[in-house]
Amino acid sequence: TGKRSGRGGVRTFEPWMRARQTLLQDLEDDLPGAAERGELSVVFQPVVALHSGEVPGVEALVRWQHPRHGLIEPDEFISVAEAQGHIKAIDLWVLREAARQLLPLILAGHLRTLAVNFSAQHFSEASFMGQLRATLEETGLPLSALVVEITESLFMEDHRRASVLLRDLLREGAGVAADDFGWGYSSLAKLQHLPLSMLKVDRAFVATSAQFPGIVRSIVEMARSLNLAVVAEGIETEAQLGALRELGCGYGQGYHLARPMDVPALSAWLAARPATSLGSAQPVPHDQ
Ligand code: C2E
Ligand code: MG
Ligand code: MG
Ligand code: MG
Questions:
Q1: pLDDT one-digit tens code per residue, 1-22
Q2: Is-contact 156 184, C-beta < 8 A?
Q3: Is the CB of residue 258 below 6 angstroms from any atom belonging to ligand 1?
């Protein structure tokens, strides 16, 4: 979309297209040094147990405060970082920073797990496990507190190295979550051989879970038979929350439960939360 042909077949280059191109070029140029310049930060979104209201952990999400363009969302720059090959450094930076910031909350028993997103690119490198361990050792976060989130597509091709690596992680007590789950898998047969401990149901299926519960229901049933935890992503309404509880979905994330927050806001949110709350909507700080 966006390309429009003029009458004589001449393409008009509209102002917004030029602005967009400038933005993308700037992001490409400026991303490599962003971490060093202190422009990257991490926010944390709680994962809520839908029946007890407990908060077992959080997911770390990266943010980029660009000096001229302001706050840039990961959907804008992760693909740039992947194309440039900078994503691996960024992911490890996020892991280090998130672990450092969250360790006090984990040691105090307020949270058990930290989930971090890892690009598929790590899994084609033998050095990844070593880098992961070194980063955790540096911060003091135990491997058993980490949940490694990877996109479902990593499993689409037969990534032998990825499988071995993820199996090692599971054996050592880390969690492995298939992010944005629901598009790629057709069969239970395939899923049962994958080294996973958790499925994160894609927001698109969560959005329609109240009207069309079929897909989430079958994911929950599949997960139960394979002994996998299920997290519904992007819960935005009370109706979705109710439907997901009824479907037996174990965990949820979403703006209706809590926005991604920095650590001070997260600590306050946790402290304000009644321990046995059923996880219904709470006043939440704005996305940062
Ligand atoms: P994701 O891992 O599936 O993360 C969930 C995204 O959904 C986050 O967007 C979160 O802010 C957003 N979200 C949470 N609840 C709701 C809701 O109720 N409604 C809506 N509409 N959205 C909700 P964010 O932070 O913009 O991240 C987007 C994606 O960027 C992530 O999707 C993940 O794939 C990627 N990403 C983020 N941080 C990192 C990172 O450190 N490394 C890598 N490799 N990827 C990252
Ligand atoms: Mg976003
Ligand atoms: Mg994720
Ligand atoms: Mg996701």
A1: 444 555 556 677 788 888 888 8
A2: yes
A3: no
**Rounded to the nearest 10 degrees, how much is the dihedral formed by the CA atoms of 36, 144, 113, 95?**
10
Q: Is 31 left (phi over 0), alpha (psi -120 to 50) or beta?
A: alpha
Kindly give the distance from the C-alpha atom of residue 60 to the centroid of ligand 1, in angstroms, as a whole number.
9
For β-strands 70-72 and 229-232, DSSP reports them as unpaired
DSSP β-bridge partners for residue 247: none
- Run of H or E residues at 93: helix 87-107
Do 287 and 259 form a contact (C-beta atoms < 8 A)? yes
Q: Express each pLDDT in 18-30 by its tens digit.
A: 888 889 999 999 9
Residue with tokens 């007890």: 52
Q: How far apart (Å, rounded) are the C-alpha atoms in residues 8 and 92?
A: 51
* Any atom of ligand 1 within 6 Å of the Cβ of 71: no
